[in-house]
C-alpha cells in the first residue's frame, strides 16, 4: 500500500508535509541522537575545549614568564655591558695616569742623570785643568830656573831654592796678568 491509498477518498495529500508516522519516528531518532550528543559527545567536546583553553592559557602564561625572564636577562646583560664599559673607561684612565706618571719619573731620572753627568764632567774638566796647570807650572818653573841661572850666572839646582824662585816668578806673573790666566 502506498500512502496515497490510505487517505480517505477525496482527500488530497500535501506533498510538502510528510506523513505523521515519519514525523514521529524522526522526532524519536532526533531525541535519541540529541540525548546521546548531550550526554556523551558534548561533555567530551567540552573537556577537550577546556583542556585546549587551559593549554593555551598555560602557554600564554609560560610565554609571558619566558618574556619576563628574557627582559630581565636583557636588562642584566645591558647592566653588565654598562659596568664593563665603565670599568674599561676606568682602566683606560688609570693606564693614562700611570703612563703620565712613568713619563714624569723618566724625565726626573733623565734630568738627574744629566745633572750627574754634568757634575762628573765639570769635576773631570777641573781635575784635568789642575793637572795641566801643575804640569805647566813645572815646565814654566824649569824654564824659569834655566833662565834665572843664565841671568844670575849661578846654578839654581837646589830644589828648595828653585821652588821658591819659581813660586815667586809665577806669583809675579799672575799679579801682572790676572785676567789672562783666569780666562784660560
From TrEMBL:
<keyword id="KW-1003">Cell membrane</keyword>
<keyword id="KW-0066">ATP synthesis</keyword>
<keyword id="KW-0375">Hydrogen ion transport</keyword>
<dbReference type="Pfam" id="PF00430">
    <property type="entry name" value="ATP-synt_B"/>
</dbReference>
<comment type="subunit">
    <text>F-type ATPases have 2 components, F(1) - the catalytic core - and F(0) - the membrane proton channel. F(1) has five subunits: alpha(3), beta(3), gamma(1), delta(1), epsilon(1). F(0) has three main subunits: a(1), b(2) and c(10-14). The alpha and beta chains form an alternating ring which encloses part of the gamma chain. F(1) is attached to F(0) by a central stalk formed by the gamma and epsilon chains, while a peripheral stalk is formed by the delta and b chains.</text>
</comment>
<keyword id="KW-1133">Transmembrane helix</keyword>
<keyword id="KW-0138">CF(0)</keyword>
<comment type="function">
    <text>F(1)F(0) ATP synthase produces ATP from ADP in the presence of a proton or sodium gradient. F-type ATPases consist of two structural domains, F(1) containing the extramembraneous catalytic core and F(0) containing the membrane proton channel, linked together by a central stalk and a peripheral stalk. During catalysis, ATP synthesis in the catalytic domain of F(1) is coupled via a rotary mechanism of the central stalk subunits to proton translocation.</text>
</comment>
<keyword id="KW-0406">Ion transport</keyword>
<feature type="transmembrane region" description="Helical">
    <location>
        <begin position="23"/>
        <end position="42"/>
    </location>
</feature>
<dbReference type="InterPro" id="IPR002146">
    <property type="entry name" value="ATP_synth_b/b'su_bac/chlpt"/>
</dbReference>
<keyword id="KW-0472">Membrane</keyword>
<feature type="coiled-coil region">
    <location>
        <begin position="60"/>
        <end position="94"/>
    </location>
</feature>
<keyword id="KW-0813">Transport</keyword>
<protein>
    <recommendedName>
        <fullName>ATP synthase subunit b</fullName>
    </recommendedName>
</protein>
<keyword id="KW-0175">Coiled coil</keyword>
<comment type="function">
    <text>Component of the F(0) channel, it forms part of the peripheral stalk, linking F(1) to F(0).</text>
</comment>
<dbReference type="InterPro" id="IPR005864">
    <property type="entry name" value="ATP_synth_F0_bsu_bac"/>
</dbReference>
<keyword id="KW-0812">Transmembrane</keyword>
<comment type="similarity">
    <text>Belongs to the ATPase B chain family.</text>
</comment>
<dbReference type="InterPro" id="IPR050059">
    <property type="entry name" value="ATP_synthase_B_chain"/>
</dbReference>
<dbReference type="InterPro" id="IPR028987">
    <property type="entry name" value="ATP_synth_B-like_membr_sf"/>
</dbReference>
Amino acid at each position: 500500500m502506498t500512502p496515497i491509498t490510505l487517505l480517505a477518498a477525496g482527500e488530497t495529500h500535501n506533498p510538502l508535509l510528510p506523513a505523521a508516522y515519519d514525523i514521529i519516528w524522526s522526532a524519536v531518532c532526533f531525541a535519541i541522537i540529541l540525548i546521546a550528543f548531550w550526554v556523551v559527545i558534548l561533555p567530551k567536546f567540552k573537556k577537550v575545549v577546556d583542556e585546549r583553553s587551559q593549554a593555551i592559557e598555560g602557554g600564554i602564561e609560560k610565554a609571558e614568564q619566558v618574556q619576563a625572564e628574557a627582559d630581565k636577562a636583557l636588562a642584566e646583560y645591558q647592566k653588565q655591558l654598562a659596568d664593563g664599559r665603565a670599568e674599561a673607561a676606568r682602566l683606560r684612565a688609570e693606564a693614562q695616569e700611570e703612563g703620565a706618571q712613568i713619563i714624569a719619573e723618566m724625565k726626573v731620572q733623565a734630568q738627574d742623570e744629566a745633572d750627574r753627568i754634568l757634575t762628573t764632567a765639570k769635576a773631570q774638566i777641573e781635575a784635568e785643568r789642575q793637572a795641566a796647570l801643575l804640569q805647566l807650572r813645572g815646565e814654566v818653573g824649569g824654564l824659569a830656573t834655566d833662565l834665572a841661572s843664565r841671568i844670575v850666572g849661578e846654578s839654581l839646582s837646589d830644589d828648595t831654592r828653585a821652588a821658591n824662585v819659581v813660586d815667586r816668578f809665577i806669583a809675579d806673573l799672575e799679579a801682572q796678568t790676572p785676567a789672562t790666566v783666569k780666562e784660560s
